[in-house]
Amino acid sequence: MARVAEAVKYRDEVIEFPLEYSEENDIPDEELHEHLARPSTERTKRLKARCRYKHTATGEFVDPNLKGGIERMRFLTESHKETVGQPNAIRRALGLANILNKCTLVLQEDELVVGFNAEHPDKLPLYPETSYMTVRDYIESKNCPEEREEAIECNEYWKAHSIQALGERYFSPEELLQMYQFTSMEPPAFANAYNSVCPPYESVLEDGLLKRIEMAEQNKQNAMDTMRAENWNAPERLPLMEKIDNWDAMVIADKAVISWARRHGRLCKIVAEHFETDPKRQEELIEIADICQRVPAEPAKGLRDAMQAKWFTYLICHSLENYASGYAQKEDKVLWPYYKISVIDKSFQPMTHQDVVELVECERLKVSEHGCGKNRAYREAFPGSNDLFILTIGGVNADGTDGCNDMSDAILEAARNIRTTEPSIGFRWNAIGREKTKRLVFECVRSGLGYPSIKNDEVAMRQLHEKWGATQEEARDWALQLCMSPGHVGRRKTQKARTEGGGSLLPAKMFEITLSDGYDWSHSDMQLGPKTGDPRDFKNFEELFQAFSTQFSYCADLVWRAKDVTRYYQGRYSQLPFVSSLDDGCMEKGVDAMVLSELPNPWHNCMTNIVACNSLIACKKLIYDDKKYTMDQLIAALHANWEGYEKMRKDFVNAPKWGNDDDYADEIVKRVYEDVFAKKFKTITMYSGVSPMPGGQAVGAYLFIGARTGPTPDGRYGGEACDDGGVSPMAGTDKKGPTAVLKSVSKINSSTQKFNLLNQRLPVPLMRSTHGFDIWHAYMKTWHDLKEDHVQFNCISTEEMRAAQKEPEKHGDLIVRVAGFSARFVDVSTYGQNTIIARHEQDFNPYEFDQLGVEFANA
Amino acid sequence: MPKYGDHKNFFPIPEDADDFEPGKGDFVVEQKDEKGKFWLSKPVFADQEMSAQDVKRAT
Fold first, then answer.
1. Record: contact B28-A267, CB cut-off 8 A
2. B2 touches A: beta carbon within 8 Å
3. B4, B10, B34, B40: which to substitute to probe chain A, counting the most A Cβ within 10 Å?
4. Residues A105, A200: Cα–Cα separation, whole Å
5. Secondary structure of A376-404 as H, E, C letters
6. What pLDDT digit, counting tens, does each position of A102-140 carry?
7. CB burial class (10 A; 0-12, 13-18, 19+) of residue A150?
8. What is the phi/psi pair of residue A280, to 5°?
9. Count of pairs with CB atoms under 8 A, one residue in A, one in B
10. Which candidate from B36, B37, B40 shows the least CB-CB separation from A105?
11. Which of A376, A393, A542, A798 is 20 to 30 Å from A299 by CA-CA measure?
């Protein structure tokens, strides 16, 4: 039935690999993952069975019932019309207050954590104030709000007030057209409205909003006293006006959030007293009502309080005040004080560790039901999932002690039990991290969840400290901002917008057009980049390399200009009074979160890099070094999509490739990452006054960008998927084993990069054997010692994926790691599924065991 | 159309609530679909005419 790995001889011993869970011997390979879910209670079993996922597949929602909601649009628009003439920060706060005072609340049965972001569990909030085009797309689709005419009217109103019209003024029509293609670079944020935020959860849980209101009111009072003081001084005092407006806005926002939270309490009480008949559930609802009455107005006193306050904060920061992707937090650190109170001391909301696991399972299912009306391109970028939701655990505490604790374990156990794609988990791998927690990380990995994705804690901390100026304590306190980038977390200095760090550059397309003088002949039929010359005239590889570098440089300057122009307008029109109220820096200085940048953290993603790199390598080898082909012949073959040039294509496919510890190939890749990407970024000074860093990854963009990228000299056909992220070898081309991949990756100096994603695929029989952890742990130690930034794993058989392609209805629990996120396999397009199947399953044999220094326990 | 204040699903907001206004209440309905039960709470005024949607939902 189940495949068991063959015994091998290693260091004079025969090592066998029986499955760790013997019952799996009777489970066919094709259905393993359907047997792994173990919700810890009947409640979470029910909640999972009825979960209202907001997954998309090829940009469309999988659930045909999902619709855009009208209420956020309606109440925001109404307020905007009524507040003409008021300062913008206050208009934003009043807009939020109007939404929260008037919106319909949703309570579902069985919930332990309550709150939803739209007026019906099958609806999504929309954001006309940030992207007119995005909402127009919803209106013209089957997800249009039921109140269609009203939606059209609201959206038309915001066209005149959007930052898109403002931002476009600073670009030529040609530049805008190039960016809007989304082939060599991502469209500007003032049009795409894709965003992120890292809320200071600590402030809410530790202080409560009533204290934050008091702080803002006191700050405002101090400022007003200064304004009124004798001997008027304009340069000193005029700047206080904007601060006073920001503090007023914070107060308005926080009061509205308190009132909205308490409305939930009232709803729970009404349902308990008038609708619910089960006495146990009535008692639960009364307890939830009490929690909502107290938090987030007051500090959290126990773990139930903390989870509820955190959830309310999340809803406001990520979907009601503004749209923001992500679930950025160091969740074990945030919740640990309350775990101690409730589980260890049992002094408030007493519970067991298993109760905590149930609570986290509930949280995971709440996240799985969370969706927002984001842009279609980003629905395409995350196939098989709702959005990017990544929390972080592990690492070290601010004082340098082990950051793994029993809350970290509860989070991992819940993830393993409930099997959802969201939220994904990032694990900070530190040398001092306790083995107990690392074993749970491995359990999740070998269950095929695709997470935790694993970050090198020491590499990340060094970056934050040495590059961005974080103190040692601040550098230790970090979490993933979205899927890959470390950023400080805490009461202040967290990242508040994706215009600080995020966005994408697409080198595969850049290389393609390098071969046609910057012209995109295969997709948009336009001059997409600068004219860098006819490559048939290039005398040597250096001229080709320089032309590619020029294409990259052009796009890099354009995207940073677009981001900072957007940021400029975000600070004036898209303020975040609630987020600002939580940040100690914004509170102290009276500056909005979109404006203030106390601790820079800028980066830009480079996606589809390895297609460009492997293409450069192939050109150097076959055209310039071996002179087997001319550039003229190559270009003819590419324009024919290799048809009629099969033998030639085979030579280009077989040219040296990245990921095989081959210095010929790896040196070129190193040059691209360090001398093209990183060096160019050093010439840029962005909004926060520093130079950004490049970060390699792909999300699902490697699929749809591949579809828009023509044939390339690595042997790729036009329209085929690109490489799946960062420093991941192109699928199927890493043939020299897992250690060779690690050695290739280690040649890129990780201190020059913000991050680099590495996807690897592990063999199921070995990983699920009694020796799985021994092998994986040795691999991880090697990875860590080579100072590599990141690694994440698929642990899934080709048999199971093929079976799921044939009968998707039987494989609802099959999860795969796509790139910076995990996805339900059956919701990924066939085109995407095939790229995951094509990923090379690493072969761990005695040679690899020796290279990695594997010690088999009880061998 | 009937008024919200006359309906059994209208619950006046207590005077000590942050969002209290005279005549204001929570209109709470139970709904059920293939995924299960849920409750919706909408702020309304007692003397406000019920919307057609709410009349249908509360039936």
1. yes
2. no
3. B40
4. 25
5. HHHHHHCCCCCCCCEEEEECECCCCCECC
6. 999 999 999 999 999 999 999 999 999 988 889 999 999
7. middle
8. -65, -45
9. 64
10. B40
11. A393
**Model pTM score:** 0.97
Contact B40 A266 (CB under 8 A): no
* A275 interfaces chain B, CB cutoff of 8 Å: yes
C-alpha separations of B13 from A259, A591, B51, B57 in Å:
12, 36, 20, 21
Nearest-CA distance B30 → chain A (Å): 8
CA A215 to CA A263: how far, in whole Å?
24
Query: What letter represents residue A124's amino acid?
Result: L
DSSP states along A528-583: -S-----GGG--SHHHHHHHHHHHHHHHHHHHHHHHHHHHHHHHHHS--HHHHHH-
**Per-residue pLDDT tens over the stretch A731-787:** 999 999 999 999 999 999 999 999 999 999 999 999 999 999 999 999 999 999 999
Asked whether the beta carbons of A415 and A364 are under 8 A apart, the reply is yes
Cβ within 8 Å of A, B 10-29: 11, 13, 17-19, 26, 28
Comparing alpha-carbon positions, the chain A residue that sits nearest to B9 is: A274
Is pLDDT at A859 greater than 60 in this prediction?
no
| Domain with B42 in it | 4-57
Give how far A292 is from chain B: nearest CA, Å.
13
CB of A823 closer than 8 Å to CB of A62: no
User: Tell me: the pLDDT tens digits for A774-801?
Assistant: 999 999 999 999 999 999 999 999 999 9
* Shortest Cα distance, chain B CAs vs residue A108, angstroms: 4
Q: Residue B43: which of A102, A108, A270 has the nearest Cβ?
A: A102
What is the count of structural domains for chain B? 1
